[in-house]
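User: Sequence in, structure out. Go.
Assistant: Echoing your sequence, followed by the structure tokens.
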Amino acid sequence: MKIVFKSRNQKIVMTGMCAALLAVLSQISIPLPTGVPVTLQTFAVALCGYILGPGLGTLSVVVYLAMGAVGLPVFAGFSGGLGAFMGMAGGFLWGFLGMAFLCGLGARQGNRLIAIALGTAGLLICHVCGVAQFALLTGSTPLQATAAVSVPYLIKDVISVALACLAALAVLMSLKRAHLVDSL
């Protein structure tokens, strides 16, 4: 699934649209006592990578993180600001960068199973970053932190990566049929 945009402006628009989609899907959130909510962020991050590829997909996440860093309420629970990067879920925010990159890299392989495998590897990087920061902030052991903020989310997140891969394929095929991209 390699997308070839017709123009530089189209790249800019698609990157911005994916960042906006990530901001919107981040608000679909179920708060949990651990301070790490259940959201559709992992689906959105994977979708950005799968649609845009490793470079622009990661850039769309950078745009999203920058919007949140300057205080726009784009993170889960309509939060924003630099403090979010230092909070209980902050490690996951940092981990989104690696996840988007690996999803995008997977999309370029031309094989859905490889794409999902690389996306899942990106998800694991995201979880490692999230667990590490959570453990550091709470003083819990890595095993305790994993049990609190990774294990309960893993099944949902792996399903999110797989569904994002399939959704991206549908989006890209629609863009191709509409003659909005040169090739896939």
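User: And one key feature?
Assistant: The CA atoms of residues 73 and 179 lie 35 Å apart.
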